[in-house]
Amino acid sequence: MAGGSIVFYEAAAQLIPVMVLVLVVEQRSGETLESPLGNLVFVLSTFLAAAIGEMVALHELYRGRAAPSDQYWVTIPMGLVALSLVAPIVFRSLRTIGTEATERTKALASIALLTTCFAVAVFAFAATRY
């Protein structure tokens, strides 16, 4: 699936709504950030990013031809939504670890967080290159 091809936009147009539904289920299950205002901004900005990515993907499908320059408008929101699915779980775990863990455990948790961020960045880069 090459970035900037119709197949890429078809897959993205199907994947983004599923990711948003997962975010909604995650929010209903209680995996939220600490402050209600922070959580509201977090969810609305994620929905906005997903809406932009979905609109661009659907626009490319409607035109019937794919512009490689538009793939960034789809890939970056997909990466942000993927990161927003993982962030509440990671932050909750880090809060728990912060209160009852040793320095070694805190270092391992920090490495896990950085690895997750790196994986999302690699996904976004790979999706735009191939």
Describe the structure.
With 130 residues, the chain is an all-alpha fold. The protein has helices at 6-28, 36-63, 71-100, 103-129. It starts with 5 loop residues before the first helix and ends with a helix.
Beta percentage is under 5%
| Record field, number of beta strands | 0
- Number of continuous helical runs: 4
What is the terminal-to-terminal distance? 7 Å
| DSSP helix fraction | over 70%
Work out the radius of gyration: 17 Å
The averaged pLDDT comes out at 79
In the CATH hierarchy, what is the class? Mainly Alpha
Order of helices and strands: HHHH
CATH architecture: Up-down Bundle
Given as residue ranges, the uncertain stretches (5+ residues, pLDDT < 50) are none
Query: How would you sum up the major sheet?
Result: none
| CATH topology term | Four Helix Bundle (Hemerythrin (Met), subunit A)
